[in-house]
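Exercise: predict the structure of this protein bound to S-adenosylmethionine.
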Amino acid sequence: MRMRKKKWADPFLEEHRDYIFDDPSAYKGKWHDFFHTEELHVELGMGKGGYLIKMAEMYPKAGWIGVEKDHSAAAVAARKVIDNDLPRENHRMISGNAERLAEWFAEGEIDVLHLNFSDPWPKTYTHKRRLSSSRFLELYRLVLAENGHIEMKTDNQKLFEYSVICFLENGFTLTEISVDYRREEHPEDAVTEYEQKFIDEGKPIYRLCAVRQKECVLQ
Ligand SMILES: C[S@@+](CC[C@H](N)C(=O)[O-])C[C@H]1O[C@@H](n2cnc3c(N)ncnc32)[C@H](O)[C@@H]1O
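Solution:
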């Protein structure tokens, strides 16, 4: 469900552009140095940011960036860090559309991309907006490192099935696939806000891990 628009969001985002960027293209190709890290993780559609903040805390040696196009959600996420004065050495946020990924990240710069509970866009004519559609996967192949990979979680079976096909058709190898991921405990992977809601409703969580193939000739 879309978050209700928050009047304070835009002024708040403008005031905190040192943490939540709108156009970080000046850092393109420099993110590893920026975070002094060898591993850069980017979450697309971070929503209220709970996953990003927890994972950044759990993996302090990696650099973490959360991208969110909805300004109200992005501001709620950034506020969690700013109002609570959380340490932010290894994470930043971007309020913008993931379509602009190649403006912000250089070729091969990202090690891991996270897609958590992406919008399902159920109508056929909206499928191209899905973050796991061919249009986006082409972009991910560009910005992912040679051995980079994508971790995707969803509650939506149809979106999951669609995504499996898209990954296989767009130069990715699936190395993990689960249709009930939380059947076992996974303390190494934080639970997102949406995920917690589905766990509470007793719904299964689908998850896959897709590795970028080095060489691939697309049809
Ligand atoms: C269903 S919510 C899930 C939020 C969070 N990942 C979670 O699991 O709790 C999907 C989020 O992705 C964002 N989103 C969808 N398409 C996007 C895009 N192209 N670029 C950036 N964010 C996007 C939406 O605005 C929304 O906040």
